[in-house]
Amino acid sequence: MNLRTEAAHGAIFPVGPGAGPARPQPVFPPRAQQVFARNYPETPHRLDHTLAQHDLLTLDSLASLATRLPDQSVEYNCGDLPIGIDGKPGATGLGIAETIRHIATSNSWAVLKNVEQVPAYRSLLLSLLEELRPAIERRTGAMLRPQGYVFISSPDAVTPYHFDPEHNILLQLVGSKVMTQFPAGDPRFAPDTVYEAYHTGGARELRWNDDFAAEGTEFALQAGQAVYVPVMAPHFVRNGRVSSISLSITWRSDWSFAEADARAFNHLLRRLGFTPRAPGRWPAGNRAKALASRAIRRLSPRKSRAAQD
Ligand SMILES: [Fe+2]
User: Fold this and answer.
1) Mind listing the pLDDT tens digit for each residue in 58-79?
2) CATH 2.60.120.650 is held by the domain 26-253
3) Which helix (H) or strand (E) holds 11?
4) What is the reported pTM?
5) How far is the CA of 250 from the centre of ligand 1 (A)?
6) Residue 233 CA, ligand 1 centroid: distance in Å
7) How many angstroms does the Cα of residue 113 sit away from the middle of ligand 1?
8) Domain with CATH 2.60.120.650 in the chain
């Protein structure tokens, strides 16, 4: 087995040949893998996949999974939200299993986080990522920290405007949704100070402005389609007219960790009165600032978000 070691970040996770079960057919067909290889890591794009029906991803299986995950890995709330919100949305009063089993009528949005904590889901996640590993590692170095998230959404539910620190592919399994993405690293859509605050413990929600709407790119997803989201690209998601299940497969890379650490370093520089330049986007590296940030972290008892995610 090929062990990938996240030496700089203290975690070890096996991602390698033999880590997942053998699949007779790839979930990402050859043409999807070619599209991914051409566009990764900076260009959002749609992909086809064959995962639309899988025993681990039915409502019953997911309701059962939700009760097996630790509380902090399960989040759910009401689904009829605006694109921009302040703080966390309210609860519905239902339990998580009931929310999922009755998602068609529960007016809810639910996410099961880090499903790789359960061995069968971990095997599924690793088998999917294994298909993409050559294309990933050619561009951004070792594929690190694979994580899986399942989203279960009521009709018309909205995931408000936010960003994520991972490389991410969202696979639509049941129903439909539209993800609207905005360019990663453009401070018009997400100020550098927000990214910096996130990497030092802040939230990932972003302030929405209706003027942004015309500049977003919509990716409409039906079951059997997926979309790639670059690291830190702002986005929001609007569910279709029927309830939906989506699987998000994510990973980090040497590049994404360096970008995150450079953001944390910029946060420090800004507190000292400087106006630091934003980290470069791939293929630019951010090695000097990342090394400085890691050196400071070793001296400080308080870890930054970049080291904890
Ligand atoms: Fe997201």
Assistant:
1) 999 999 999 999 999 999 988 7
2) yes
3) strand 11-14
4) 0.87
5) 10
6) 9
7) 12
8) 26-253
